[in-house]
Structures are given as structure tokens and as C-alpha cells.
Specification:
This protein has a domain at 143-275: Cytidine Deaminase, domain 2 (3-Layer(aba) Sandwich). Helix content is 31%, strand content 32%. The protein has helices spanning 53-63, 105-118, 122-130, 145-157, 160-165, 189-202, 221-229, 243-252; strands at residues 8-17, 20-29, 32-38, 41-48, 73-78, 92-97, 143-144, 169-175, 180-186, 211-215, 234-237, 255-261, 264-269, 274-275. The longest helix is centred in the middle third of the chain and has 14 residues, at 105-118. It is globular.
Length: 276
């Protein structure tokens, strides 16, 4: 069995306050690498907070376009083959895919190298998302503004690890009545979103045409892309979106909300889904 993941680490620090210096215990958000392998081929390595690793791998496979449906994932196994105490023990997810979903690894290596080395090119990135023939999210979905305003408090109240460390992003899925369906935390906001979408994929809940995704931090291009892949009609964040995120949301019919704080929010795309 793989070791139980540790999302929090305890350390000793020195705290200075108003001229006084004292030693105290402090909690840190854990950060470790996770390698995703398909067969014998390494696919990706991401720095993440341990926990819900199979969901993270499943969400990554879906939002990166490697799989399109749950049935194409035959197995997701945490690799515990390394000796106890070794750094990579429990930090590998071994994936088995249906033959039609197994990627061309030479093309995949070029894709991930380009993404990490030269960043996102606006037009090329939106063209790449559009070429995947994604369906516009549920056009009939509507959300009451008062329900939307309640979501940040519900997210914060459920962030167990953030409350202890102050160092994690969160992604939370809600239904149209504002009920929390699932929340995941991670040192990386993209990972938190992949964990939520991976949960939905493995639970057979996709597409998420009647749900809302709320993220801490900003709503960037990749977050919008992941939301559209999952079929979400509405994405909200407590901070600002990027220009490319707004462009993609408008092109593909996603309602994009930013600065959701207190009694205020800004609608950057798809204002017809918000009921006053």
C-alpha cells in the first residue's frame, strides 16, 4: 500500500513581533512531485500537494485531451514499488489506457516541452482548443446572483488545509442551489481544478452542465480551458481573469466571473446566465 499522503508539514520557525523573537511550530503546505506514466512512458511531472492523486491524473488526462471519456481509462494506480523511505514512493501514478486513447509519445514530448519552454501563444492556443471540437456549455443554465454571492464563504469554510497553512489554492464545485459538491486544495491552482474535474470524471458526472466552478486566485486561460472541457457553464474566481481567458470564454460560450467578493462581482463573458 502507498503511504498516506501528507498535505501538511510541521516545522520550527522564528517569529518576530513588535521587537520580540520567539520560536514556534508552524504548518507548511506540502509540495512533492507527481509523475504520471502511461505504461512504461513518462507523460508529465507536476509539483503538487499530495492527496487525491488519482483524481489529479484523471483530470489532467481529460483536460489535456488525452482521453475524452471515463471508459478510456482502464486503470489508475499509485506506484508503491519504490522501497519504503525513498523520495519517489507514492509519487507516481501508473495509467493504463484503452488502445484508441494511447498517445503518440514523441508528439506528446514535443507538446509538453513547448508548453513549458515558450509559454502560451494566444492565437495558437485558442485555435488548439477550438480544434478539439468542444461543445458550448449548457445554454439554458441560470444562476441567481444571491446564490453566487454565497459561494466564496462556503469555499473558505471548507478549506481545511488552507486554514492551517495559508498556502494553498482551492477549487470547488457547486450545484445551481449553491450546495457544495466537492472541494480540492493544492499548491497549484491548475492541479486543484484537475482534481475536481478528475473527481467528476471518475464519478461519471461529466459533462458538468448544471454546475459552477469557483477557484481561488485568478481565472487564467488554462483554467477556462479546463472548465470548458468539463462542460461547465459558469466559472467564477475571487480575483481577475487574464485577457486570453476572457477571449476564450466569449468565443466558446462560458460565463466568466471575476472579483467575486462581498456584494460585488464582474461578469466578463456570458452575462445572460446570471439572474438578478
Amino acid at each position: 500500500m502507498p503511504p498516506k499522503p501528507r498535505s501538511v508539514s510541521l516545522t520550527q520557525v522564528s517569529e518576530w513581533e513588535d521587537g520580540d523573537l520567539r520560536r514556534k511550530d508552524d504548518y507548511l503546505a506540502a509540495e512533492e512531485p507527481l509523475e504520471i506514466r502511461i505504461g512504461e512512458n513518462p507523460l508529465s511531472v507536476t509539483m503538487r500537494t499530495p492527496g487525491n492523486d488519482t483524481e489529479l491524473a484523471a483530470g489532467f488526462l481529460l483536460t489535456e485531451g488525452i482521453v475524452q471519456r471515463r471508459e478510456q481509462i482502464l486503470a489508475l494506480d499509485a506506484d508503491a514499488s519504490a522501497p519504503t523511505g525513498q523520495p519517489n514512493r507514492g509519487n507516481v501514478i501508473q495509467v493504463s489506457l484503452a488502445p484508441e486513447a494511447t498517445p503518440d509519445f514523441e508528439k506528446m514530448r514535443r507538446h509538453f516541452f513547448a508548453a513549458s519552454s515558450c509559454g502560451i501563444c494566444g492565437k495558437a492556443s485558442i485555435d488548439a482548443v477550438r480544434s478539439r471540437c468542444l461543445q458550448p456549455p449548457n445554454r439554458q443554465f441560470r444562476l441567481d446572483a444571491e446564490t453566487l454571492l454565497r459561494l466564496p464563504d462556503a469555499l473558505r469554510a471548507s478549506q481545511a488545509v488552507f486554514g492551517r497553512t495559508g498556502g494553498l489554492h482551492a477549487a470547488a464545485l457547486f450545484d445551481a442551489r449553491g450546495n457544495l459538491l466537492v472541494l480540492r486544495e493544492d499548491i497549484g491552482r491548475h492541479n486543484a481544478v484537475d482534481k475536481v474535474i478528475g473527481w467528476a470524471l471518475l464519478e461519471g458526472r461529466l459533462p458538468l452542465g448544471d454546475s459552477i466552478l469557483l477557484v481561488s486566485g485568478r481565472g487564467g486561460f488554462e483554467i477556462v480551458q479546463k472548465a470548458i472541457v468539463a462542460g461547465l457553464p459558469l466559472l467564477a474566481s475571487v480575483s481577475a481573469p487574464s485577457s486570453l481567458a476572457v477571449q476564450l470564454a466569449r468565443e466558446l460560450g462560458l460565463t466568466l466571473i471575476g472579483f467575486l467578493r462581498g456584494r460585488r462581482f464582474v461578469i466578463y463573458a456570458g452575462d445572460g446566465r446570471i439572474q438578478r
